[in-house]
Amino acid sequence: MNLLPQMAPYAILVVVLVFLAFLYLQLATKFNIIDKPNERSSHTIPTIRGGGILFFFSMIIYFVVHDFQYPFFIIGLSLIALISFIDDLVTLGAKFRLVFQFVALSLLLFQAELFYPPYLIFSLLLIVSIGFINIYNFMDGINGITGLCSLAALVGFLFLNSRVSVVPNNFIMYPILAILVFGYFNFRKKARFFAGDVGSISIALVIAFLVVSFVKKMQSPLPLLFVAAYIVDGGLTILRRLFNKENILEPHRSHLYQRLVQKTHLSHLQVSCMFALVQLFMLGPVMLVHDKALLVQVITMLAIYVLLGIVYIAIYRKVNQRP
Q1: Taking the CA atoms of the chain, what radius of gyration do you get in angstroms?
Q2: Three-state secondary structure call for residue 206
Q3: Measured over all CA atoms, what is the biggest interatomic distance in the chain, rounded to whole angstroms?
């Protein structure tokens, strides 16, 4: 019985998010916020986009309910969610979006108390953070991948937070519940809606804030493992496209997760689950060495990234050999 008072706020949040999800479906249908398939699409039928706005809503609810914590982060999140939602409606230029990403991530780093001399470090963190949220957006190409991989990362942070206590647990729980509600509409063969840029960018910003906050508090690179699957696929894909002198800002279907769907009999959800499991498995080594010497943590992280890189290259080559 003692659990009921603790669970009640979560139950209320789920009810509110379900209501918002159905409301968004109605509004998106009325205003034709539809993602129509083209030659680069992984889906074959018109589908409502922008359903990932639930991630943003969950953080606004957290902000209001929990005494307006992290105001600069929320301002940045609101700004980038608005621009991303507009981009879902009418395509905006990459340079225009980049300006707002710069402002939003500057606010994020300021909130994380990383805005101090030498400003070269801040500038490098800003560039890396912008690269990260764009990789996160690039990886949003099949049903389930954004939701499942983000869920796996957030679960990892939740467990780690129980040991090192960096942020309030609800800061992680609220987007987890938003993803579960979103998943009801997206984790299926024919999704009722996609996350859209507003979803992938918003949840990327939440996870980026968690990464920098945990790295700063722990003085450890281990939290980077919770986004390893995305960084490896997204990062190596960008490097390969640069090597081939391709425009990395243009849409394409050359990520490993896209190749797996195109070249094998695996479904969207099967591929998404594979990537999410890689993310989830990172919890093991993180929890195992998080209290060890820094050198052990660095070696562990680098070894895992190198291993994932080798596996990625091997699988990519094998899949690409298929007709």
Answers
A1: 19
A2: helix
A3: 62
Identify the residue with better confidence: 40 or 56. Answer: 56
Distance between CA atoms of residues 242 and 158, nearest Å: 36
Peptide bond into 118 cis (omega under 30): yes
Check residue 115 and give its pLDDT: 82
| β-bridge partners, 34 | 48
Q: According to the model, what pLDDT value does residue 90 have? A: 86
- State residue 200 phi and psi, 5-degree precision: -65, -40
CB-side neighbour CA atoms (13 Å) of 281: 11
Yes or no: say if 185 and 51 are a contact pair by the CB < 8 Å rule.
yes
Q: Is 165 helix (H, G, I), strand (E, B) or coil?
A: coil
The lowest-confidence range among 23-27, 109-113, 189-193, 292-296 is 189-193
The tokens describing 119, both together, are 């400003």
**Which residues, at least 6 apart from 306, have a Cβ–Cβ distance to it below 8 Å?**
none
Cβ proximity of 139 and 255 under 8 Å: yes
What's the whole-model pTM score?
0.94
Q: In terms of residues, how long is the chain?
A: 323
Cβ 183 vs Cβ 130: under 8 Å: no
Task: List the beta bridge partners of residue 15.
Answer: none
How many Å separate Cα 118 from the centre of its chain? 29
The DSSP bridge pattern shows strands 34-35 and 47-48 to be antiparallel
Distances (CA, A) of 54 to 77, 274, 276: 13, 24, 20
Of 226, 201, 100, which is closest to residue 146 (Cα–Cα)?
A: 201
What one-letter code names the amino acid at 16?
V
Q: Is 39 left (phi over 0), alpha (psi -120 to 50) or beta?
A: alpha
Least confident residue range of 52-66, 173-187, 238-252? 238-252
Contact between 178 and 135 under an 8 Å Cβ cutoff? The reply is no
The closest alpha carbon to 253, from 40, 43, 38, belongs to 40
Say which DSSP state 139 is in.
T
